[in-house]
## 1
Amino acid sequence: MAEQTIVKKLKVLNAYGIHARPAALLVRAAGKYECEIFIEKDGNKVSGKSIMGLMTIEGYPGSTMQVSASGIDAREAMAEIEELFANKFYED
Amino acid sequence: MTITVQDLWDEGAERLSLSIIAGEQYLARKIPEIAMNRPGLALTGFFQYFANQRIQVFGLAEFTYLKSLSNKEKSRRLEELFNQQIPGIVITRNRKASSEILELSERFKVPVMRTPLVTMNFVNECTVLLEKLAAPRERIQGTMMEVMGIGVLLRGNPGIGKSETALSLIERGYSLVSDDITEIRRTSRGRILCWANEVTRFHMEIRGIGIIHVPSLFGVASIRRQTELDVVIDLEKPSGDEDRTGVHPESIELMGVKLPCIRLPVRSGRDMANIVEVAALNQKLKELGHDAAKELDDKIISRLTKGRVQHG
């Protein structure tokens, strides 16, 4: 499969926003894939594979993140990340 | 980057001992020119050249001059000054603002602040602050350490071992500035200043352990609030094209500043902390004017060419 970049806007739906646990879930999901994953909000762009990065991005409940994945398995990675956002990081 | 009086207030209220005496609701006013102006000359009625886009500082000179005017004249001159769309006023030495100033502040929607500092000290402190506020800043991926006074930025793909290398360096007595996410800005001297994000400051993530608080475990000597960047070290998978001599060092650019960049291949069992320490030391030596690689190369070249001359 060819290299590809997927960009999606995802909304933080859980009650506490992106704190340590959701950040860990995201990093674990992103870390499984070869592709580069970035999460961007208000001009701050951090690696989706960095716990520290995700904890500094100020992912308030209700805010929207721009998630981009580029690389050979970008589609699968994005699907998994989307699932985490959609399921409120399995919280509540 | 646009700065408002609000930014100055947020960042400087404590440091400059500022208090707002009028026009608090107008703090959103922009400061188009990041500087201060003493409006003494303007108060005499000279507006042909007036730095109206700067913060106006009322000191002893301004107040003494205003005192010398009749009440009517004083109001007229002040009104003219406020009419120039100034961003804001700071009164030094805790002078009391006259009722005209308070009234004009409302009418022209200009915030007025006050400080107990004398004008000279205020101007000095405020210049530093404004420069800091105006400097372009970025957030970059990388772990920042200070090793023997050398600012080292460790970069590399997730999982390559930046945090682990940093941890070994901390155990050796060096200091952590930031883990994984580093805030940077360019100083007026053309250096890059690095510090950590407020929220995660002095925390590290170590695979298998989780998040740790570095000063709690290693003491306050293990951390630094900020440091200037001297050398960038990229941790990489071994590729085979690593630098073997160091005669032609690589460099990268961050915010328009050129910095030496060393690519270190990571192999299992290799003590990266030790190598980073040596790289930092070597950088320090270069800054002192000793470039070991180049000196050795020069020596070899001179021997070789001397040889050629002798034999040829």
Note: The domain at 4-90 of chain A is CATH 3.30.1340.10 (Histidine-containing Protein; Chain: A;).
## 2
Amino acid sequence: MILLIQYTLIFASVLTLVALGGCISEHSGVINLGLEGIMIMGALGGALTLKYISPSLPAALIVLAVIVTSMLCGLIYSLLLAIACINFKADQTLVGTALNMLAAASATVIVKTINIAENPDNVSSTVQYVQTKKALVMNIGSMQLNWFIPVAVIALIAAFVMLYRTRFGLRLMACGEHPQAADSVGINVYKMRGFGVIISGMLAGIGGIVYITAGVSEWKFEVGVAGFGFLALAVMIFGQWKPLNIGLAALLFGFFRALSNVYSGFDFLSALNIPGSVYNMMPYIISLIVLAFTSSRSRAPKAEGIPYDKGSR
Amino acid sequence: MESSSEYAIEMLGITKRFPGIIANDNVTVQLRKGEIHALLGENGAGKSTLMSVLFGLYQAEEGIIKKDGREVTIKNPNDANDLGIGMVHQHFKLVQCFTVLDNIILGDETVKHGLLQKNVSRKKIVELSDRYGLKVDPDAVIEDITVGMQQRTEILKMLYRDNEILIFDEPTAVLTPAEIDELMKIMKNLAKEGKSILFISHKLAEIMAVADRCTVLRRGKCIGTVNIKDTNPNELSRMMVGRDVQLVAEKEESVPGEVILHVENLSVPSRLHHKNAVSNVSFDVRAGEIVCIAGIDGNGQTELVYGLSGLENCSSGKILLGGKDITNAPIRERSVSGMSHIPEDRHKHGLVMDYSLAYNLVLQRYFEAEFSTSAGFLKKAEINKYADRLIEAFDIRSGQGAPTIVRSMSGGNQQKAIIAREIDKNPDILLAVQPTRGLDVGAIERVHRDIIAHRDKGHAILLVSLELEEVMSLSDRILVMYEGEIVGEFDPKKTTPEELGLYMAGARRAAS
């Protein structure tokens, strides 16, 4: 039972972080389909930091270093989307998809190169961080949580305050709803959209490292992040682009994802004798069902996906 | 800041060229402090370009702009804002899902420690709205409020920024008659409080009612500035169009023939609520007559036309077109059976905005043998030839003729394209919904003539209009709609606008 709560919280943190990223980007008017790819890049940066950083450093410093590198990797990678879609007005769906393919492939290549350089016989795409991963753990009673959970909660609150209580948030959402209106009152739409994408890159980057350190002590980059970036998009839509709803939606999806990790620990579930793959499929099936019922009345930002052009009427 | 100049803004000798066209040719407009100055001109006369120059959206090649007697440069809307120039755009620049308050403060927010201070802003907005009589609910969401209140929000946006010079770009195009009266009062009030107003319009009655002076533009040139006191609508329209214009349509007595459109107990559901928007409506339209549906916007006219044209399924009742039951017929079948439709929303139902003018002109006929081969390929040359003929015949002005992308054309010419397409189909029944919306007097005269000519050929016309003047001058028979029902039938020669108004407002209804 404790294990279930533990995993639910961790997976919910991943989904919250990444979905918030998507939400902020879309509120600025850019659809970020590249979340999956950005997660992989963030995960790669974080995993390599964990691999090379000295385990003797204070735990807080390790956590900080991991978060900062993941964030930076996510940020830099998301700049590709920002420049292509905002400056060059490229199709956002295509660029996002390209980012996903590029990230999975290049992360594998990078990790394999590193592994081969260390040991010519090792052609795997796995990064190990057994020692340093301990620094991420946070124990509350008998529950083994990690430091990323409070980070996700802080991000959630910060996103809420930013969107609804600050000047930046008001302007950001205006750019996603009606960029011509924002422009007419002197707001630089291109700049605001750039910020939206960059913030989403940072959040998705952290989300990536949180995902691959949830439970395991090594990660095989060939598998990417198993569609969690897309699951986060589903969370965002189910959460109606509102931070607090996204938090709740993430808990729901996180719960089903956690169930697949720990179902064998529940006697009544293992007694049902359902194959493990069914549990693995659960979050994705749930997202299909949920989206089928909610997306028809969804309130996406009106101008999302449409490149802003000052000249058009 | 006091200054000796009597003018708030002067635009002197402004020339602005676009490839192939001089939009403004040595135009001079001087706006006195505290006056309402109208800018009158046909569609495409250069009014919008001139205002875009003043608002910093375009740079003029020649000419200078003076504020309070001193020369200024305006490079972008922010410069205009800093000089106290504000503009209510024809298409409102409001974020639909924001509140009135959020829209007003956007771009000029009050913050403390990085957080928005909405209470401070709310106080200022309430003060402004009381002072100028602009009723708004600061916490209402834009998409839930009326167009009139949206416009008041736009005005408050300018006042909130302490703008002294207010530009109104065709502000009445989207308003109901009652809202127009209200706006006129507000504008006079603003001028009394010392604001200087530039009022862009092509509606003579409004200019006569509210403006102090009027500058007339024609094809980019400045024709002159006149005092409203010393002029009359005929002179203004002559200045604007360059010839005498008939402000009231002239037509022969109608000779109604057989019934073309027969509507029996028709009900159409509403998209907004669960009740019927049109309930139990019956009427006939005969060959050779213009029947007009009058009413205040939102009383079921839109849905009635949706039902007749097939855009919406009817919940009950019967529609016969020339004796044939088309109640549940698809739109294509109605179209080929002799129904034409000039839709209310030309962007949504009238045109494919990113197609060329030529393709838009054959949108309902491309499948005919004249325009496509039996294998289904389009005959481009034939389509272009046909388009050129309509462009010529209906005076549709565009950048490059038939290949012009419709989105780049002015609203008035888009409307002309639809009218050309629908009338040239030579339909037995023409459904025309606000066919002259957004057109200037010259073009209105033209459309009215086309409609009357179509009637005189022995066809039936069902006209829906919100403008009483148009209803009175064009129709042979008037049906008034109120809350989804027809509450009275009138002969335009035996009724008055006042009587119609009472029925339209629901104060009276015919015994049924």
Note: The longest strand of chain A covers residues 137-140.
